[in-house]
Amino acid sequence: MARILIGTFPARGHVNPLSAIARRLVERGHEVAWITHAKYRALIEAAGVTFVPPTDGCKFDDEHLDETFPARPKPSGLSQLKFDIKHVFIDDGVHQLRDIQAFAATFKPSLVLADAAFVGTRLYTDLSGLPYCVLGVIPMTLGGDDVAPFGLGFQPSASWFGRLRNRMLHWGIQRVLFADVQRHYDAVRASVGLGAASGWVLDGPVTSTLYLQPTIPEFEYPRRGMPSSVHFIGALPVTAPPNWVEPSWWNELDGSRPVIHVTQGTLANDRPHLFAPALEGLAKEDVLVVISTGGRSIESLGLSSLPDNARVSTFLSYPDLLPRTSVMLTNGGYGGVQAALSHGVPLAVAGRTEDKPEVAARVAWSGVGLDLKTATPSPRTVCSAVRKLLDDPRYRERARALATQYARHDAITEAVGLIEDVARTGRTPA
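and the corresponding structure tokens:
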């Protein structure tokens, strides 16, 4: 059996996707250890995995980045993105590396498994030569002539003009706008005894020994020359929150009227950017608006006064809710979108930070929903989008067609099998 060391950036959207894979690896007899922020210790140990408390890295809380990094530019935008890549992700990689090296000296891992944002694992595997396996928790960042640079939210174009556009945009991003980010990454690599990166900083994780993308090819932009390390495994399963019970209004989800599920995920939910316009815009529609606040109290969001057709809960069970959902309105969390599509639910996406523009663009490109191109849609925009998704059958038909493709996959079984191939051979699986 293999010894597998996991490292994850300390954010729930990076930790949760790996937990089921880690649990299955333990069940199959592998020895698994995991380095990340201490606040995820209980989740990790519940999966039967050894938690490795960091001493150098992962000292910040993803929900309070501004407190840890007072120099972080505000508001969100290009300056903040560059700061985060340099100082939140890359700089902490050196501290993560020290933690990994200290633990690995006695653990002696067979391979390292990580999310792409945990830079310390890339530094460690480049130094040690160990196999490097990555689970993608956002859309693929890999560039190329067929796609625009990641983050712009541009749909792909493989025409001669589109390829020219993509080349020019990549040159501008890599050689001008983000040239200082690449130099920063190379300087950090040099500080630990490594040479300059062989390619663009965002392309590196995809060219690992194994790259697991938890979606289907129909939802990801095609690229000529896709690395052989990339494997699409379908959507990772979502489970009910611990000790979840059906709310008192659950029997109203009986199919008598369309259910519109509204979510802002579990992080960017401190202000009702989607909740408020959805409640106002859909108040007079013959639908049932079901909101999950992601743990926030209803009072803190100003949602104590609700229209007659609205129901609110802090958490909801997706395995129970999504089969009853007609449309999802979301800010574009990658995992939530995959869960919706695996149940054939069309989407309206309103998100403009982090990877959300890329998620929204893929929703529109794949024909399963609408990109609202704003994080703060008006009530009228929300109502118009929901009506379009309900009235035009093409969106639901396309979402259901993708759901049949998701159903062909067992993401956990496929991921574990590929990881075991790497552990056995030390090479990229065929």
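(Above: one complete record from the training split.) The chain has a mean pLDDT of 93.
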